[in-house]
Every structure is written in C-alpha cells, then in structure tokens.
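Feature request disguised as a bug report, sorry. It would help if multi-protein outputs had a clear separator. Right now it looks like this:
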Amino acid sequence: QDAIDRKEKRSETFKTAIHGLETDTPALKTEELGRRAPQWVRDNLVTMCMRCQEPFNAITRRRHHCRACGYVVCARCSDYKAELQYDGNRPNRVCQECFIFLTGHTVLEDREGKHKGILEKGAAEVSSRSLLCSSLQLLDKNGKGGTRGWFVIPRDDPLVLYIYAAPQDVRAHTSIPLLGYQVRDMPQSESRHLFQLAQSRQVFTFVADTEELKQRWMKAMARSAAGITHREEEEEDADE
C-alpha cells in the first residue's frame, strides 16, 4: 500500500511539473514520460538541483538534464538509466523520480524522514498560484549594489514574500514576513523604479523594471502588510 501511495503521489507531482515560467516549455503529462522528448528547463533558470535542492557549483556539482522530464539535476540525482520509447528504447540518463516511475524499481532513500522546511517550495509551482510574482532587485544596505531574483507572494501564504535566486528553483533563498510592514514609494532615481518595505529599523529597498510593475508590487505588499488575504476583505475595507 505504501508503494501504491508513493506512486500516486509521484504521478500528481509530474502532472504539475515544469510550468515553464519565462520559457515556452509545455507541461509534460505523466503518461507521456519516456514516450516523447521533453522540453528542457534552461540552465540559467535554476541555481540548484530541482530534485535534492543542493546548489550547483562549477567545480563539484555539474548540471545535467533528465531525458524523461527535462528537469535540471545534479550528477547524484541523475545517476540512473532508463529505456525511453522516444529514443528507440535506448537507455538514457534520467533522474531518480523518473527512474522509479518508468522502471518500477525502488531506490533506497538516503534522506528518508527529512521534513520540508518553510523555504522548500518550488518557485514554478508557487508562482503558478500566486498573488504576484516577477523579477525584482533587492538592494543592499548602502543602496549601491544588490541581488536580482524571483519574488513571489503565494496565494496560499499571502503574508509572506518568498525570494528565489531563479524562477525555476525548487527552494527559496529566503523569505520576508510582510505583516506589519509599511510600503514606501520612492522617487525615480537614474531610471530605477524604487520602493521600500520598512518596519522599525528594518528596511528593504527594491527596484522594479517598470513603474507599472512597481505599483503592482506596492499594492500587493501593502495588502499583505495589512493582513488582507482575500479580495473580498479588500473590497469590504474600501466600502467602509
């Protein structure tokens, strides 16, 4: 029964795999795994293995593509071979999940019992059902440099801002609880569209690509900071 439950869970996972943010990657249905070639997730859309979540390193952790689902995975997670129908049933490199699904073989779990942390939510899955998601730049404290990443306010966790290094990462880099923050507009500086989140001595400065995107983020963050989690609540407050 446990094996059946696990297989069904994997099937549901594959049904929602690869939403193709900022790509033309179509979703690959479970029954199509191995039967047709997948669209590969681009290397520059991930900074960590899409299976084990370990960061990629140019020296010790190379990027590989699973030939069945198209995920970008590390060498350890792609150290499996399975016959793929679309390639004349020749053995191809696949990830562990696809290997189990395609062959029916079991694999000893070396991380069994490890619970998912609060940051272990895939960017593609979260973004597909988000209140707002896009690329932003988060400036450092002196305002001269910063980090560009993929920012998401999930629909099922609307009081938290999740920050990913890339839009297809399977784990968030960090998160910011939005409740209680103030959203501040800032004048345009050197063609940069700036705004801030501030609470006590904690201040975050963001840069949006356009003024329209900046206004959308300010509105979404202000709503979350006020604890408004549904549009109905926002409309009721406006009526009052």
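(second protein starts here, but nothing in the output says so)
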Amino acid sequence: FSGDDVFMPNKAECEEYVLEEFGIIFAGNKNHISSFGWNFGQFQGDILNICLSIMDRSLYYRQDPVTDVSHRHDPKYLGRVLSAMVNANDDQGVVLGNWSGKYEGGKNPSSWTGSGEILQSWKKSGFKPVKYGQCWVFAAVLTTVLRCLGIPTRTITNFSSAHDADGNLRVDEFYDADGNHLERGADSVWNFHVWNESWFTRNDLGPSYSGWQVLDATPQEESGG
C-alpha cells in the first residue's frame, strides 16, 4: 500500500522487480557484453522458510534476537543483514566466494542457473556455505531473497568497474622511472561487477534519497565492521 516503505507506484515495475521469477544477468566486458538467463524462483516451495532461516542465522540475530526481530520491518536493516548473509564471510552465510579458477569440492560459479538450487543446498547441508560463487551469484541470490520478502530488487552490472581498495577515490597505478609497471597497491579495474539495487524510502536521509538503493553482497572490504 502507498504508505509502505517499499511501495512502488508503477505497476509494471512492481511486476518486474517483485513478482518476476526469471531474469537476465549481464557480464563480459564493455566491448563484448554477454548475457545469460537466471531463475530467481523467489516463490518456489520452501524458499520463504529458507529466507527466514537466513535472518535467524545472522550475527545480528545471534547477538540480540529481540532487537533484530524488532527491526525486521525496516528494509534498510534487512538489506544490510541479508547482503552480509548471502556471502559466507564472517557469518557462515549462504555462498562461499572463489576467484581462483579451481573449484574442487564445489561447482564452478558459471555453472549455476538459478537461486533455488543454491538456497536449497544451503539448507540441506545443515546451513554450510555453498561452493562456489562470484559477484553475479551473490547478486542473484540476494535478488531472490529480497523479492521473496516483498522488497523490489534488481541486479545491476557495471562494466570497467573500479575497485578503490584504499578509499582515496582514485584508481592508482605505479610505474618506475623507466615506465615499467610496478605491482604496488591493491586498486584494480574489473571487467565487470554485479550488485543490487532495492527500492525503498530513506526516512533517515530525507525524501530526496528515496528510491533505488545500492546493495552489494560480494565480500570485499569491511565497511564499519
């Protein structure tokens, strides 16, 4: 309804970003953009119960269940909790990241085609992290979880994606006096990166900031813990 923090007035957008179970994820690089289908499956059997299990296994709930549950009406709070829990870092969440190119003991991130198998595997294993994921897997699973809970969500692909590891708002490259590239600094530019946007109001920041909000479930640097 219109007073809800996640109310989306455009009916077609509501159909797309809450109710649609299938979508396309873009990847590749800026000169050769590729795409592949994904089954978000947010209304498949048991997915809602798994989403509730994700919240109940978060560090926030384990540390203070009463406070956690009292904040679950707030999409800002849920976005932070769930974007943390979709990856396995720090909290034994849903998906374990792997960028090594070696995927023994799990599945190549490129082989997944939908979120349902990942979420079901997490539950069936006794809530052990599913192996393996990369950015589009984290983003797709987060899309499923948030849509299942009624929060309008979409996957976003950014090409030539700057990764500023030292927080100086620059991408730094280092060269010696002869022009040879030096392997210094952790900044990089990825071919692409996939994250999420969710639609909700920002009563904490004011109405001009309401609308699409960026969430990123790929484990990178900590932000405020």
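Even a blank line would do. Unrelated, but nice: The beta strands are 22-29, 32-39, 95-97, 130-133, 153-163, 174-175, 181-182, 188-200, 211-215.
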